[in-house]
Amino acid sequence: MQHVVDARGLDDLVDGLYLQLRALARSERRRGGAPDTLHTTALVNELYLKLADAERLRFGEARQFFSYAAKAMRHILLDRAKLQMRLKREDRRLRVALTDPDVEALTVDPAQALELDAALDGLLLHDPRAADVVELHYFAGLGLDQVAALLGVAPRTVARDWRFASAFLKARLT
Amino acid sequence: MSAAPPDLRACFDHLIDLTPPQREAWFAAHALDAELQQELLALLAADLQDAPLLATSAAALAQQYTPPYDDGAGLVGSSIGPYRLGAVLGQGGSAVVFRAQRASGAGMQTVALKLLRTGLFSADGQRRFRREQGVLAQLSHPHIAGLIEGGISEAGIPYIAMEFVDGLPVTAYADAHALDLRARLELLVTVCRAIDSAHRNLVVHRDLKPSNVLVNTAGEIKVLDFGIARLLDDDDQQATQTCAIALTPGYAAPEQYLPGPVSTATDIYALGILLGELLTGQMPPRSPARADLSRACADAAALPAGMPAAPVLARLLRGDLDAIYNTATAQDPGRRYHSAALLADDLERYLHNQPVAARTPSVWYRLRKSMQRNRTASAAALLALAAIVIGVSLALWQAHVAREQAQRATAVRDFLIELFDASKAGQLPDQRLTLDQLVQRAGTRLQTQTDLSVPTRVELLRTLGEVRMAGSDYAQAGQFYDQALELAQTFYAPTDTAVTRIRLLQASLLIHQSRYADASSIYAALLPQMRADISAAGVDGLQNYASALMYSARTEQALAISAEAARQAAAVYGKGTLGAIRADLVRGNLLVGSGRHADAVQLLESALQAWRSSGRAPDQDFLQGLTDLSRVYHTLGQMAAAESLLRETLATAERIYDAPHDRIALALLNLGDALSLQARLDEAEPVLVRALAMMRAVYGDGHLRVANTLASLGKLELRRRDPAAAARHIRAAAQWCEHPDRHATRSCIETYAIKTELALATGELDQADASSARALAMAQEIFPQGHHWMAQLWQLRAELSLRRNDPAAALALCDQAHDLLARLDKQHGTTAETVLARRASALAALGRPAEALADIHQALALWQQLAPAGNLHRIELLDQLASLHTRLGDSRAARDAARRAVALVQDRSRIEPALLARIEALAGR
Predict the structure, then answer these.
(1) A chain contacts of residue B125, beta-carbon cutoff 8 Å
(2) What's the pLDDT at B744?
(3) ipTM above 0.90, yes or no
(4) A114-123, B17-26, B573-582: least confident range
(5) Do B250 and A138 touch (CB under 8 A)?
(6) What is the CATH number of the domain that holds B106?
(7) CA-CA distance, B164 to B147, in Å (whole number)?
(8) Does residue B130 share a domain with residue B52?
(9) What was the pLDDT predicted at B126?
(10) Within an 8 Å CB–CB cutoff, is residue B211 touching chain A?
């Protein structure tokens, strides 16, 4: 069941995600990485350039693109949260200048990001479509209506999916 | 609602629309199990809560968690492991590189020390880091900056110490020296060869770019950071498999953005981009469709120093270089050059004004053929398989083929590539499937997987047969061919090329199995098709037919077909072209085999000369020509000419290929054998030892070629009269032939002959009897028309008869051997000499010393010509001579002979004590 997203709307979706990804990539550069650094974020930027050309998206790869972008984002978040946890936990000896954290600036406990990741695996078992919605909405940053268009279901259904999914996930956060 | 068991989502969806009292009533009315009820209550409560986590977007949160980076300047002067950090050399997203030093002997060693920004904290991550690092440390190549060591500092920060390279990125170097097109391409060829060498060690770079490809102050290419990207992957498989974290935009291949492991094709892509950047001075345009460098340079604002102006450059790039670039950077990894060596070859072909493979499907075909011929084991076998896969797809895809065929090529490729997944280059050696397992798996899968079309399955079965044939498993290859043919006949007309191809392969399989007569009948039936097929395949078929005829003793017919093959080659390739020269070389090979030595010398000399003067890069066919010609000279007893050709073969092979390589190893083996035959044993030994090490590196233990080399070393020790050392090598060599499913091969004949010699030297007569009988049976099966090895085996059995006191039988065997050699025109070689000496012993034992004397004189003269340095054997011949003179009553001649023998004695321990006593007594008289 291939749902064809209208190309115009699609471009907007991609652009929205691109802005977020680019913000991440920019912050990466501010942190001292040269333009040619090895890092997921810079790459997601590149991923956009690769896949955003309308030609390919029209061939039904939009879903795949956003799904991959979401997975990349999920990986980044998990990776960074783990890093923060380690830096907090590890012995002072381990904190060398290269990795010294700025712990005060955190608004959300990184442990929650880890819990979220585990809870999301649980959600996938209960309700795969709701898990897809989380992926596209929370990680890929698409609006719920856009998610509905991409998944080819009614917006109302996606709204209910999100409500269930967030209750499910919140119930598992400490 | 009550029918189906209530499920969490359904209940939640229902409850969420109700007011709190309605919900209570609902719970009261439904007897849910306690766990589900509790879960629902938790969800309903959570629904009302706010979670800052979900309110923030993942991207914003990730940004918050990302620590600010330090430039590493604060660490200058401190120590990491044994290293003291100096200036910062470079920054990367995941690492900082310092110039660092450590005390080394009397002086200081300077290294480039890479320090990871984020630690590898998990035990798994650290273990993996150490394991990978061990693999990289073994990567040693003059153009790859070596990994010196990797470690994890006390503070848990992983570091990698690498060879420090003082140099410029290759692009900057080329611009700074205003290099022209040729010089730039030559630099890239060197890079490709270095990359290929690493690929053959199963290490993929994954992050090739100008800043990792330096030219040092001595003008040498140095590739940095090999495999480092993989080393830096933390966490589990997941990270490497699904999130391609380590790469550089612009140089990264499309598949690196998608889930799945990377492969050598990834590096090929980056090499293509590097090519574009070197030639146009900018990152080439990237688009899913074909992109041409010539167009990019026409649009370029500024071209690199040393390169011609845009219109001229565009003309130079158009065609071949555009095609090479597009092949290297194809979106689909399967359409790229399947190895960096092939890319290098194509660049070299361009440099030598030869047609490039990227533009000529027939070249792909030939490459595939040569892959099949020469890369047959372990990692090399996988490359061969890949070559076949890509060969199939390209051959079909490039020649403006019908859509249906293109789809089939893709299906074939996908099927095989799926099989590769478990055995791709880049994975650790212990995780790779062997070729046997791979083919087994493919065969099984083909029987169960019937959704592929008939043509596709035919093609796959045939391909699997080819792979098995290359792996010398002829029984299984035959089964695959039979299945392919059976299936093909249900679909194609009997004269369809698809059917012909399978039958040609069946015939060539029969050749491999030494069933030349059977092969000839198949070829005879296919002759009309081969004649009509004015293509490389037709030429190959005719050439193979000629070989089959020759080996089934129909020499005249063989030469006629071979001449026809040469004419067809001239028609296909054009007179005087490389293809025609190649065909001459093949014909030369046939002439050598059929004993037409004078004709062979003439044809081979002129073909090799044509090749040399064409300025074309030599390749394996040229090497084969050199080897064949050296064989003729050897047969003609012209040892110096033979040796000089073998030395040229070795030097050429070393120039064309990076060691270790089977062609270099083969050249070493041939040279070592030639030296050993001339009894220049101390010169031969290091050559053969090198050959053995390289054969092992290329093929792994237990391969035919390794066994051949061991046999040669065994033979060398026998010539040294050191049976203990010989026994070690020969036993190891014989293992190959003793494998249950091995059939008769030339190598086994030779191995069993050497085993016989060993058994005679150690006095194990029954063993000698058994080994020689086995070798003779094989020889008679393979060479019904006779071969000089039979003469060798007969003279060994003559020795056996002499030891068993049956000189009459010994003489008969020697006479038989002598006649065979005369018939084969091989009266000038070492076998002829041994037969003469043995015949003299038999005659002496029969009480016919006068006749024996003539044979011994002849043997001595021949030996002088063949092996002037062969003193150990000369002493034995002189001892025989002295004894004969004694028996004939000429004590003066006997004493002279004994004195000549005694004068040659150097190491007394190498000479049989009884013989030594005998000649010393005679000489002193």
Answers:
(1) none
(2) 59
(3) no
(4) B573-582
(5) no
(6) 1.10.510.10
(7) 10
(8) no
(9) 63
(10) yes
Asked whether residue B15 falls in the same domain as residue B136, the answer is no
Is there a single domain that holds both residue B256 and residue B209?
A: yes
Instruction: State pLDDT tens for residues B906-925.
Output: 888 888 889 999 999 998 85
Domain ranges of chain A: 7-170
| A47 interface with B at CB cutoff 8 Å | yes
Question: Please, are residues B797 and B803 in contact by the beta-carbon 8 Å criterion?
Answer: no
- State the Cα–Cα distance between residues B206 and B246, nearest whole angstrom: 8
Domain shared by B145 and B45, yes or no: no
Exposure on the CB side of residue B543, measured as CA atoms within 13 A: 21
User: Do strands B213-216 and B221-223 pair parallel, antiparallel, or not at all (unpaired)?
Assistant: antiparallel
Q: Is B755 annotated as a binding residue?
A: no
Same domain flag for B92 and B166: yes
Q: Can you give the pLDDT at residue B430?
A: 39
8 Å CB contact between A125 and A136: no
Residue B103 has pLDDT above 90, yes or no: no
Q: From B245, B247, B198, select the one nearest B223 (Cα to Cα).
A: B198
Could you tell me the pLDDT band of residue B680, with boundaries at 50, 70 and 90?
Answer: very high
Q: Is residue B356 part of a domain?
A: no
Cα B468 to Cα A78, B465, B473, B505, B572: the distances in Å are: 47, 5, 5, 12, 29
What is the total count of domains within chain B?
2
The reported pLDDT for the residue numbered B375 is 36
**Least reliable range by pLDDT among A51-60, B36-45, B727-736:** A51-60
pLDDT tops 90 at residue B139: no
Q: Which residues of B328-365 are buried (b: 16+ CB within 10 A; e: fewer)?
A: bbbbebbbbbbbbbbbbbbbbbbeeebebbbbebbbbb
Tell me which of B461 and B226 has the higher pLDDT.
B461
Give the list of residues 6+ apart from residue B27 with CB closer than 8 angstroms, or none: B37
- Both B285 and B182 in one domain: the answer is yes
- The pLDDT score that the predictor gives to residue B3 is 46
What tokens does B329 get? 């950077």
B39 contacts on A by Cβ (under 8 Å):
171
B589 phi/psi in degrees, rounded to 5? -60, -40
Most confident of B416-420, B491-495, B775-779, B852-856: B852-856
* B760 pLDDT higher than 90: yes
Same domain for B210 and B331?
yes
* DSSP class of A32: T
B215 lies in some domain: yes
> Do residues B94 and B37 share a domain?
no
The vertex-A31 CA angle with A50 and B282, nearest 5°, equals 40
The answer as to whether B700 is a domain residue is: no
- Summarize pLDDT for B429-468 with one digit per residue, the tens: 334 445 566 667 677 777 766 666 777 778 778 877 877 7
Of the candidates B587, B622, B582, which has an alpha carbon nearest to the alpha carbon of residue B601? B587
Which residues have CB under 8 Å from B484's CB, separation 6+? B458, B461, B462, B465, B502
Interface of A with B in 95-114 (CB under 8 A): 96-102, 105-108, 110, 112-113
Q: How far is CA B656 from CA B143, B463, B653, in A?
A: 16, 28, 5
Percent share of chain A, pLDDT over 70? 50
Pairing of strands B95-104, B79-80: unpaired
One DSSP character per residue, B495-551 reads T-HHHHHHHHHHHHHHHHTT-HHHHHHHHHHHHHHHHH--SHHHHHHHHHHHHHHHH
Residue B208's domain comprises: 85-293+301-310+322-345
Which residue in A42, A94, A100 is closest to B119 by CB distance?
A94
B 233-292 residues inside an 8 A Cβ radius of A: 235, 239, 242-250, 252, 254, 257-259, 288
Lowest model confidence (mean pLDDT) among B371-375, B397-401, B838-842: B397-401
Q: Do B243 and A112 touch (CB under 8 A)?
A: no
Segment B864-877, tens digit of pLDDT: 988 888 889 999 99
Question: Does any domain span residue B1?
Answer: no
